[in-house]
Amino acid sequence: MGRILCVANQKGGVGKTTTAINLAAGFARAGKRTLLIDLDPQCNATSGLGQQPTARHALVQRNPLHESVLPTPYEGLSLLPGSRSFQDVDALAKSNDSQADAIRLHLAGELEGYDFVLIDSPPSLGGLTQTALAASTEVLMPIQCEYFAMEGLTQMINVIRSVMKKHPGRLEFGGILLTMYDASLELTREVDAEVRDFFGEVVFDTVIPRDVAVAEAPSHGQAVMDYAPRSRGARAYIELCLEILAHE
Fold first, then answer.
1. Over the range 199-215, which residues count as b (16 or more CB within 10 Å of their CB) and which as e?
2. AAA domain: which residues (predicted)?
C-alpha cells in the first residue's frame, strides 16, 4: 500500500483543503496514481475539483471504491467525493475504535493500486478528524502564520498523540506546513522562527505564500499549477510535492 496522508488542522481558513487539492494534483502530474478522499462535510475538496457532493458517503455505505471514485481533470488522480448528509457525518464521526477500524479495513483492501492517498479532514478536533487520522499513515498539518498558530498546533498534536497511542506503529508525523506566508510581515517571521525552533525538522522547508491565485483556483475547479502556472503559489506547491516525494 502507498502513503496515506491526512491533511488536518482544527482551525478553518489555514489552507487545508487547498493543500490537499494541490498536493493530489501535483503527485498525479509526477506520475503517481493518487486518490483524494473528501471527509470534510463542507465538501470543498469535491467542488474544488469540479465535482458535486454525493447524497451518501461511500465510506458509510461501504461501497467498493472502484464504484465510487470519480475522475478529475488530472490523469492519475481520482476523487472519492464528500457528502453533506448529516446522517453520514454522524456515522463517520463516531470516534469509537470499531468505527475507525471498520473504515481503515475497508480502505486497506482497495488502496493497493494507489501510490498516494490524501484525506481532507474537517476543521475540528472531533471524531471525524480522529477517524481520518486513524485511517492514515502520515499527518500533514498546514498552519497559518498568525498570532494563535502555536496554540492551535498544540491542541492538534495532543489529538494526534492520542490516535497514535490507540493505533501504535501506524501513524507518523508527516510535517508542518506554513501557509499564507508573507515575509514582509514581522509576525510571519516570528511565527516561522518559533515553529521551527520548537519542532525542528518536522517543519517543511517549503512555505506557501499569500497568493490570490491560490485562493481563486478552486472556484475554477483547478489546482493552482494549472490555473496560474507561473504564480508564486504554483511554484511553492510544486516544491512541496518534490520535498514529500524526496522522502519516499
1. beeebbebbbbbbebbe
2. 3-167
- The three-point CA angle 51-57-60 to 5° equals 160
pLDDT at 95 over 60: no
pLDDT of residue 96: 57
In whole angstroms, give the CA distance from residue 139 to residue 105: 18
Tens digit of each residue's pLDDT (9 = 90 or more) over 164-189: 998 887 899 999 999 999 999 999 99
Q: What is the CATH number of the domain that holds 55?
A: 3.40.50.300
Instruction: Please state the domain count of the chain.
Output: 1
**pTM of this prediction?**
0.94
Q: Are 194 and 148 in contact (CB under 8 A)?
A: no
Could you give the C-alpha distances from 112 to 2, 28, 34, 100, 115, in angstroms and in order? Answer: 7, 16, 11, 19, 8
For the record, the C-alpha cell of 233 comes out as 503559489
Q: Residue type at 129?
A: T
Distances (CA, A) of 17 to 1, 51, 63, 187, 246: 23, 14, 24, 24, 22
Query: Cα separation of 112 and 108, whole Å?
Result: 7
